[in-house]
């Protein structure tokens, strides 16, 4: 509008016999506008690149697009700012992995683990979670990050999604075990631990090697539930054992079949934690029962 107005003024003045040089200022405005547009475009491209490096490989395409649209809520200086937010954390690990590794050569061990991790990560993505980290034969996933939930129902749904994900992991493992058996490879068993509550989520590392993660007691408790090894309970012999904390139990409602397994002194904890085993999903949940 400014350029058009200036040109209009110049033409009107010319018709009245006056000469007003308007082209140099107009050209300056155009160059300035172009420079600003280019700067904004470069900055947006850099922000998108950082965001995609952190999240695109570990969440669904739809969630990645939503994160970009809402980036102002959690990005600060081209990296996620630390946020205290409600989250559900899931840890999954292979039970007795040492025996699996001993029965295969090194290349086959890597292939075996990669096949497993690919299936587990697929279930995290399908259930709206974020693959936080891989560690050897295990995985850490978070539900409810990086965008804070603004409702109690949203927090409840994160916990339900994590449990549905764990149940789906059992179904995926059944398919993998069948294929491994046909190839005369060892089959696997999984242990899953889930806890819910407020944690700190943000990025760690240098600007060139950022990693988004969830830290705090919730992540620690989920890890301890996953690694719980108590020979007094028959759940140790199951193909997939899913344990949730009392905090997660309170968010699930009546959508799952749960068994109270009592209190346990988990490593590093000062007080015992009550654990519940997930036996399956009720029909009203709409998820398949293992």
Summarize the structure in words.
The protein is α+β, with helices and mostly antiparallel strands. The protein folds into two domains: 2-46; 80-285, Alpha-Beta Plaits. The chain is built from eight helices and ten strands. The strands form two sheets. Strands 3, 4, 5, 6, 7, 8, 9 and 10 form an eight-stranded mixed beta sheet that branches. A two-stranded antiparallel ribbon has the order 1-2. Strand 1 (75-76) and strand 2 form a beta hairpin. The longest helix is centred in the N-terminal third of the chain and has 33 residues, at 23-55. The protein is globular. It starts with a helix and ends in a 9-residue tail after the last strand. The model has no long low-confidence stretch (mean pLDDT 82).
